[in-house]
Amino acid sequence: MDSGKQRLYQGIAQAIIDRIASGEYPAGTRLPGERELAEEFDVSRVTIREAEIALEAQGYIVVKTGSGVYVRKDRSDGGRPLPDVTAFELTTARSVIEAEAAALAAVNISDAELAQLERLIDGMAAEDAGLSAGAEDLDRAFHLAIAKATANPAVEFLVGQLWRMRSELPRVREVYAGVCDANARTRAAEHRTIFEALKSRDSSAARTAMRDHFHRLFETMMAAREDAALAELRRSMGEDRQRFLQATLI
Hints:
single chain, 250 residues, mainly alpha, 10 helices, 2 strands
């Protein structure tokens, strides 16, 4: 994605967050429309939509089809600190919880929610990255949309907390960034498989597709860790070799 484009929509998203925090956009109120915001920030409506995708993924707003975009009333996380987990521990938890969330969503998902998921997938798969929001924002929005489609607030909350860990814990974020950036096409294809299972209202297929997605992610993490360990071993051996050669020349 073009870095200038990315900074543009992120800057607008942050400006809206600041307005929410200041009370200019109180909880439950409707945001100005895309056209009005585009004129105010002097950007295209596409950029405003990208900012709104990011805000929805972070839990600041909710998009109500046919009504508009509203500031969420229930974003509070109660100030609870996040547990100190590894990327592997988080991925295991996500596999268990999100696989069952996908199975439940398959029998509850609406046509409007399916349309939203398809738009997010199209963004992930876009060859021209400048036409889509950041990959992490799209990924998060996709998974949170599935959680919401379960029609179970407890499941939606749990998945939201898992994503907080995914996004806010530095060592987890670092691991995910490495493996996700390297497997963007594979990830988009896996999300498409999950979507097709949901579209078919097939709980078993949705559960399996989500599990497969996390299994591949886990294996990629393992391979990356092995590569890092091998690189460190080679570096260490190289230093030992140099010390040995220097010692024999004395």
